What we know:
Layout: E1 4-8, H1 20-32, E2 36-41, E3 50-51, E4 56-57, H2 64-71, E5 77-78, E6 89-92, H3 96-102, H4 105-108, H5 116-127, E7 132-135, H6 139-145, E8 150-151, H7 167-174, E9 178-179, E10 188-190, E11 195-198, H8 207-224
Helix pairs in contact: 1-8
InterPro entries: Class_I_gatase-like (IPR029062)
Protein name: GAL3A protein
Amino acid sequence: MGKRVALVLAGCGVLDGSEIHEASAALVHLSRGGAEVKIFAPNIEQRDVVNHLKGSPTEEKRNVLVESARLARGNIQDLAELKASEFDAVIFPGGFGVAKNLCSWAVDGKNCTVNEHVSSTLQAFHSAKKPIGLCCISPVLAAKVFPGCEVTVGQDKNVDGRFPDAETASAIAELGCKHICKNVNESHVDKANKIVTTCAFMCKAPLHEIFDGIGTMVQEVLKLA
């Protein structure tokens, strides 16, 4: 039997939802690993809607669950229905929707609040000692919910201009968590908390390197499951 994995999305599109390449990469690696995947998203309004051609916000209103259904090919459920007892692991792809819709990190940084269903999902898997996989900006969810945990968002300095959001590592440290510096094709495993993280698009890198890094995260999650 393959592992049962829940994948949690935050919309559709890097600037206001889930990063599409990251979600796709996670799904490909999960498929290759023989996992049985079900996809979830919170049934809430997006913080904003961004015109991805212009990179600027619009006056539109969109729903996170409805937009996430684009990535899930319609096969998706409300996050409120997710039961940790029915799964072996949970994975959160990144994208600014994580920092806007799943929590308020985009506005409040380390003082952010986390959506109640996101927080309860993380706590349920953690309490059951089931692994949690996070990539790109989504490790901040773990940093906020589990003080003292270890995560990576890449590097804590903007090495060669490849890590423009390196200050995120400092904010994670200010939350009482340990940031572990890793390259884009690597992941970090916090064995005590069963949290696996990789930086993905927090690094300016070729797509195949980001894909490979997400692969290491998925593989480690499946090993722990």
